[in-house]
Amino acid sequence: MDLLQLRYFRTVARYEHISRAAAELHVSQPSVSRTIARLEDELGTPLFDREGRRIQLNPYGAVFLRHVERALSELDDGRMALREARGGGLGRVSVASETLLTIAGLLASFRAVFPRADVRLFQADAQEMERRLRAREVDFCVASQALRGEDLDSVELAREEVLLAMPLGHRLARRESVTIAEIADESFVVTRPGHWQRELLERLFAAEERTLTVSCEGDEPAATQHLISAGLGIGLIPAMSRLVGARDGMHPSVAWTHVDAADCHRVLKLVWRQGAHLSEAALRFREFTTSRPFMTHRFPGLGTEQE
Question: What architecture is the 3-82 domain classified under in CATH?
Answer without folding.
Answer: Orthogonal Bundle (1.10)
